[in-house]
Amino acid sequence: MALLALLGNSRMLKKAASGVLASLRGSTYRSVRLASSLTAALLDDLFEHPAGRSTALPHGDRLMEKSDHTKVAILGAGRGGLALLDLLHQIPSIEIVGIADRDPAAPGLPRARELRIPVTTDMPDLISNHGVSLIMDVTGDPEMEAYLHAHKPPTVDILSGSASRLLWQLVQHESKLEAELLQSEKLAGIGSFAAGVAHDINNPLQLILGLAENLAEERDLTAVHEQARDIIEAVKRTSAICRDLTHYSRRASPHENVLVSVNDKLDEALKIARYASSFHDIEMIKQYQPGAAVKGNPDELLHVLVNLITNAVHAMEHAGGTLTLETTVLDEQVGVRISDTGCGIAPDKIPEIFEPFFTTKAPGKGTGLGLYNVKTIVDKMQGKITVDSQIDKGTTFTLTFPNAEPAGQEGCLS
Amino acid sequence: MSENEFKSGFFIGGEACEGRVLVVDDEPDIRKIVKMTLQKAGYEVLEAENGEKAIEVINSGENRLLLDVVICDIRMPKINGAEAVAYFRSNYPRVPLIVLTGFPDTDMATSFLRQGVVDYLVKPVEGEKLRSAVARAIEQRELARL
Ligand SMILES: Nc1ncnc2c1ncn2[C@@H]1O[C@H](COP(=O)(O)OP(=O)(O)O)[C@@H](O)[C@H]1O
Ligand SMILES: [Mg+2]
User: Fold this and answer.
1) pLDDT digits (tens, 9 = 90+) for A117-161
2) Superfamily, domain A59-159
3) Which of A27, A358, A401, A46 has its CA nearest to residue A178?
4) Beta pairing class for B19-24 and B15-16
5) Which of A32, A185, A327, A372 is the most exposed place for a label (fewest CB within 10 A)?
6) Ligand nearest to the CA of A366
7) Looking at the complex, does the CB of residue B33 fall below 8 Å from at least one CB of chain A?
8) Pocket lining: A326 vs ligand 1, CB cutoff 6 Å
């Protein structure tokens, strides 16, 4: 069986573990990628090929029917069990059939109830459940392994405690490094805002200074009033810039998963992107369908949109062009399209653009991390990103997310 | 008095004029305030919102001869400031150029000064400083003529 073979030679696990070690040592990005792709491969092999079927399905052709789900039972609802719950319930192809702990006060049990996962204190009952295809043992009980082998139904696979733990650690570590990377890319990006911010702050300051100098001598009261009002407006414009930017640069609050209006976020992203790049000679077209809402972390979605808009504007830097922002709402899906009429991407480069550090921009201008982070966030939101590009014609990035407010629900509300 | 037409201090509409200045900036606020500041000191101020318009203005009629100073922003649409500076320097080497920018960038400043830009001012600049930069630029131009 795929799973047992995998755990048996445990080459995969060792490789994954060495990926983690390497990243711990160097904390470099490439090793995160390694750890991340190995974790993904591991999860793939563990869960997307149900026990008993060892032939791999071609990628992109995975059946996601209920019967194909890996049905997991978790033994032990201590810290390990709790962690596994949190990890596994996010994976669509996994169904957690139940979690058991002899101790009714175990911390994982209330969490399982929250997630509407059946809870029991009767371990033997869960172990003999025929609906289960994989038992993950995180009881820490040395006798458990022998007991499992003696009592489990013959078709059920077992993932031992140490393997489960390693898997969890791998995922934790990866997500921690990823958060770090997102933040550092954001801060590096702020550097490229310097010119735009200086421009947008110093222009109103010039106005304020000039008006104030004039006010010191102005005798016409009407002019005094008018200029004082101009100064107030200029100060407001200046402080809005600081507000936008501090909001953008702050660390995204973790684990936030709320309803976000994509149209609002696009407008917010536009404001920020204007600091990062010059919008001169760029025509804007907005086609928003009302009610485009997705589930996710608002700060992270903002980051995605800022990156895509900035890239689009960079691509039109030399000749100008048209930036089109479009949202669509279909029953099950929300679509976001960001198109430019810029330089385009060569077909042979397209597979590389989502790789970390791939950039065609001058140092200080591009980090090569933008699209990597975009992809990471979109994946996390269970969305998809596709790119369509033609050299010298332009590029379109399309995002699709599960609709957070499908028509049925909306109907109920209104 | 054939020299007089080259000197600043000619008369327009009966008022003493210290010189004719073209201010190139995409922000109407900046053009307004620079104009206000320089008019007080007796300069006549023309405006252009980008490099392209600036080139139009400088090529129109008497401006070819009578323009004394160009004050130019850098970050602008159409022909941007840097391109405009290059154009002015090669086509109108006699007209002194002052760069007035919102973004202090030493590399850029050095390159402009090397191209013969007479002053590089960073916004916000006090009225007094701006006026003396313009006066200095005109003075240099006069000296170069002698
Ligand atoms: N809209 C676009 N048009 C043309 N090229 C693009 C576009 N978006 C991304 N690219 C290419 O993909 C590369 C990687 O993008 P990204 O990961 O955002 O890094 P960066 O923008 O820092 O270079 C860019 O350097 C560029 O070559
Ligand atoms: Mg980018």
Assistant:
1) 999 999 999 998 888 989 999 888 888 888 988 888 888 888 887
2) NAD(P)-binding Rossmann-like Domain (3.40.50.720)
3) A27
4) unpaired
5) A185
6) 1
7) yes
8) no
Average pLDDT over residues A167-176: 76
Q: Is the CB of A367 under 6 A from ligand 1?
A: yes
Q: What is the pLDDT of residue A313?
A: 94
Q: How far is it, in rounded angstroms, from Cα A98 to Cα A127?
A: 10
Q: Is the pTM of this model over 0.90?
A: no
Q: For residue A379, what are the CA distances in angstroms to A29, A300, A382, A400?
A: 18, 12, 5, 10
Q: Assess whether pLDDT exceeds 50 at residue B18.
A: yes
**By CA distance, what is B74's nearest residue in A?**
A199
| Ligand 1 atom, smallest distance to A373 CA | 17
The top-level CATH class assigned to A258-412 is: alpha beta
Residue extents of the structural domains in chain B: 15-145
Angstrom distance (rounded) from CA B106 to CA B86: 18
The SS3 assignment for A142 reads: coil
User: How far is the C-alpha of A34 from the C-alpha of A14, rounded, in Å?
Assistant: 12
Cβ A378 vs Cβ A315: under 8 Å = no
Whether A3 lines ligand 1, by a CB cut-off of 6 Å, is no
**pLDDT tens sequence across B76-97:** 766 667 788 888 888 888 889 9
Q: What ipTM was estimated for this complex?
A: 0.82
DSSP B104: -
**Domain B15-145 maps to which CATH number in 3.40.50.720, 3.40.50.2300, 3.30.300.20, 3.10.20.30?**
3.40.50.2300
Chain B residues touching A198 at Cβ < 8 A: 102-104
On average, the pLDDT of chain A sits at: 80
Tokens of A313: 């504007």
- A-B contacts (CB, under 8 Å): 63
- Domain residue spans in chain A? 59-159, 258-412
